[in-house]
Write a structure and sequence with these properties.
Length: 365
């Protein structure tokens, strides 16, 4: 394979849709083009159902993997349309796939991201790298988060301790110190609970700009109960997902008489508090904080982060050259490049793996 262009595809825990990017890491600004395709409600519902046990799971999962591969292929077509590039000029697609189960603990040891990689390669005529988490888990790791290695590559500074906070469905942090190891882990829920509460009470996929949450008042008793959950006090490496943080978990902490907007305000406070506590406990020297992911646009959340981290400058990753909405998709383009070049893609200190490993299964076009 030759060339410098890669495509990264990410569809995250929020289940909002597909982010696809065209990248060239030989350039100072690697992000060249973007494409977003939203999921329709029927697909989102079908994917959510696979987070729980149910009838005919294997068949439903296989059918959805094919359907998602076709949507990914369409996103690639739209991404390349008008660029003058043909598929043969793209080295590979790095495709995370859609997470439906994440159970990396030793007693289980798996993480499932739906996509038919072979079909995606067939439909696009481009080599596909997917199934990034399994190799890290096989080596004793959590399989996530994987983006800290990319953060180190593109955002680290030789004289400034930096922190990257990715607020997707799950929130995770990456500490980029001037000296010492890069560290990172999943803090807990990012948008996942706020979005689910919006769907239930507003029939809206998310709280635009955090306005609904800002209209409510934090419920101290509820926030205290949520923060007492054992995951938050676990030491890293650690990762999490919908298996742990979901609407049923939230419901088990409610008394039933809470105002919906007050619960939303409390969920904003939960995400802010778990991120802030993680930063103060594990990355106290970082004096620059950069946000990415959908939650970076939640003004109520960002305001609370600024209050919790008053001595630190907080900006979007846009200031570092990559738009906050596209960082994760870029990361999987980079991870595809690492796989093609037979270079490690994980950070053992982040995931807990025994050693560095080349990540991903490759489907040649």
């Amino acid at each position: 394979m030759s060339g410098t262009h890669y495509i990264g595809i990410m569809s995250g825990t929020s289940l909002d849709g597909i982010d696809a990017v065209l990248v060239d890491f030989t350039q100072s600004c690697p992000l060249e083009r973007t494409c977003y395709m939203p999921y329709d409600e029927a697909l989102r519902t079908a994917l959510l159902a696979l987070n729980q046990r149910g009838k005919d799971e294997l068949h439903r999962a296989a059918v959805l993997a094919n359907r998602i591969a076709k949507l990914y292929a369409e996103s690639v077509r739209r991404l390349l349309d008008g660029t003058g590039l043909n598929p043969r000029q793209v080295v590979a697609i790095g495709c995370h796939g859609q997470t439906v189960r994440h159970c990396p603990q030793p007693e289980n040891g798996y993480s499932i991201q739906l996509v038919n990689g072979a079909l995606l390669a067939e439909l696009t005529g481009i080599a596909v790298v997917t199934d990034f988490r399994s190799r890290d888990i096989a080596a004793g790791g959590q399989g996530a988060p994987l983006v800290p290695a990319f953060h180190r590559e593109v955002f680290a500074h030789p004289a400034i301790d930096r922190l990257i906070v990715n607020i997707g469905g799950i929130a995770n942090i990456t500490c980029l110190p001037v000296s010492g190891h890069v560290t990172g882990f999943d803090c807990g829920p990012g948008n996942i609970l706020m979005d689910a509460w919006c769907v239930r009470h507003l029939n809206m996929p998310y709280d635009r700009d955090g306005q609904w949450g800002a209209s409510g008042r934090v419920i101290p008793r509820l926030l205290e109960d949520l923060l007492a959950f054992p995951y938050f006090s676990l030491p890293p490496p650690k990762s999490t997902g919908r298996e742990m943080f979901n609407i049923d978990w939230l419901q088990s902490c409610l008394q039933g008489d809470e105002a919906a907007q007050d619960v939303q305000a409390t969920l904003v406070a939960l995400t802010a508090a778990t991120i802030t506590r993680s930063v103060l406990a594990h990355c106290p020297a970082a004096n620059e904080v950069y946000l990415c992911g959908g939650g970076a646009h939640n003004s109520a959340l960002v305001c609370q982060l600024r209050q919790g981290l008053p001595a630190r400058e907080i900006k979007l990753t846009d200031a570092l050259g990559i738009d906050a909405d596209w960082v994760e998709a870029c990361a999987f383009g980079w991870l595809a490049q690492r796989a093609i070049e037979r270079a490690p893609g994980n950070l053992p200190v982040v995931t807990g793996a025994h050693a560095s490993r080349i990540l991903g299964a490759i489907y040649l076009a």
